[in-house]
Amino acid sequence: MTEWITANEAALRLGFFLGILLLLGIAEALLPRRQRLLTRLQRWTSNLGIVVINTVLLRLLFPAAAVGMALFAQSAGWGIFNTFEVPFWIAVLVSVLVLDFMIWLQHVMVHAVPALWRLHRVHHADLDFDVTTGLRFHPLEIILSMGIKFAVIAVLGPPVLAVILFEILLNATSMFNHSNLRLPLGLDRVLRLFVVTPDMHRVHHSVADDETNSNFGFNLPWWDRLFGTYKAQPREGHEGMTIGIDTFRDPRQCDGLKGMLLMPFVGKVTDYAINRRQWEKKP
Ligand SMILES: [Zn+2]
Ligand SMILES: [Zn+2]
């Protein structure tokens, strides 16, 4: 089975991506959590446009992607799981956990380091929060992510299956936890014990920087609880809160493709960093 999955990796990833995007797109249209500020047409063309750019760029720069790196590590005998005998399913499980933790750490890092925040703020500048927000990342941040993933794979030596599972899982949960979906509160409470829910991640997209600097998880919710960065709900409620970045409010810049691509390079490198957790609403 692993061979079949590895051989059809690209098709599987694309299939899950399109299927889940469609399902969540329909679900959030039927059960919206918040009123939209902008039209779908305006945001989706830009958010999906950047997905197309990133996909082409990744194909050109790293044609074999993370799976290729895992295959290479395996044949070269690199990494912990290619050095020590570990039962296959334990290696898969631990690899998915470690990869998820590294993504969490990386997410904390891009908020903590002012220059990296310039890249990551493109994700946060979306004035609305829906399934396509989970896909919009600046191409430079995508390249940074891939580099970090390569390094983790080289050290860990995860089974190829774990890398494929993780890529599909992360893509799916990222779309899910950004969706503008109204889940019953009881269901949300139970779900967020195991997976990051839309209500949990929406807190992270607040303009208030103490709220932005919480809930860094994309997939598993446990790291935030374990490391003290968990915030259950936004102060002003999910309908009352403002989404985005305080200083970026122009729809053409925040949700236009050109504005998004140029956003890392505008303005001075600010003192925005993770230790700034004192939010004062500007008059
Ligand atoms: Zn973030
Ligand atoms: Zn997000």
Low-confidence runs: none
Number of strands: 0
Rg, Å, rounded:
19 Å
Strand content: under 5%
What integer is the average pLDDT? 93
* Helix-and-strand structural type: mainly alpha
* Secondary structure: helix percent: 55-70%
Shape: globular
The number of helical runs is 15
Q: Which small-molecule species are bound to the chains here? A: zinc ion
Distance between the termini: 59 Å
Q: Which H/E pattern describes the elements? A: HHHHHHHHHHHHHHH
SSE arrangement:
Layout: H1 2-7, H2 9-30, H3 40-61, H4 65-76, H5 88-112, H6 114-124, H7 139-156, H8 160-177, H9 185-191, H10 198-204, H11 209-212, H12 222-227, H13 237-240, H14 251-254, H15 257-262
Helix pairs in contact: 2-8, 4-7, 4-8, 5-6, 5-7, 5-8
Characterize the structure shown:
There is one protein chain. This protein is mainly α and 283 residues long. It contains 15 helices and no strands. The protein starts with a helix and ends in a 21-residue tail after the last helix. The longest helix is centred in the middle third of the chain and has 25 residues, at 88-112. The protein has helices spanning 2-7, 9-30, 40-61, 65-76, 88-112, 114-124, 139-156, 160-177, 185-191, 198-204, 209-212, 222-227, 237-240, 251-254, 257-262. The model has no long low-confidence stretch (mean pLDDT 93). One zinc ion is lined by residues 123, 178, 201, 204-205.
